From TrEMBL:
Pfam families: OB_ChsH2_C (PF01796), zf-ChsH2 (PF12172). Residues 9-43 form the ChsH2 rubredoxin-like zinc ribbon domain. It comes from the Archaea. It comes from Candidatus Nitrosotenuis cloacae. Residues 48-108 form the ChsH2 C-terminal OB-fold domain. This is Nucleotide-binding protein.
Length: 121
């Protein structure tokens, strides 16, 4: 199974697949070959809860082709709880900043053609 498929499968169950350095325990999101912190090459899988807070976002009211039916929505950068990792994803029904204050609690609910799906907690 590919790393991308493992990541998607974790997201579909509301989790995040991370790579933890076996030397310094630094967490990484993507497929990595060297630890960004210490340079070591050893990693183990770490499953993180798919909950966190809004770090930043943009509201989409003029969508790209194929996304018209989802408008308006927010493309959100989420800081994952208990880590410094961030993932970005789709949060539907957001038309104004008052609907999604910075720091709002959100969670991963799945994955589809829009990417990682998020919802407010």
């Amino acid at each position: 199974m590919s790393m991308k498929q493992e990541f998607v499968d974790a997201v579909k169950s509301g989790k995040v697949l991370a790579k933890k350095c076996t030397k310094c325990s630094h967490l990484h999101l993507a497929t990595v070959y060297f630890c960004q912190n210490c340079g070591a090459k050893g990693f183990v899988n770490e499953i993180l809860n798919g909950t966190g807070t809004v770090a930043t976002y943009t509201i989409i009211t003029v969508p790209p082709a194929g996304f018209e039916k989802y408008t308006p929505y927010a493309w959100v950068v989420m800081k994952i709880d208990d880590s410094e990792l961030r993932v970005s994803g789709f949060l539907g029904g957001i038309g104004s900043p008052s609907q999604l204050p910075m720091g709002s609690r959100i969670k991963i609910t799945g994955y589809d053609d829009r990417g990682i799906l998020l919802e407010k907690q």
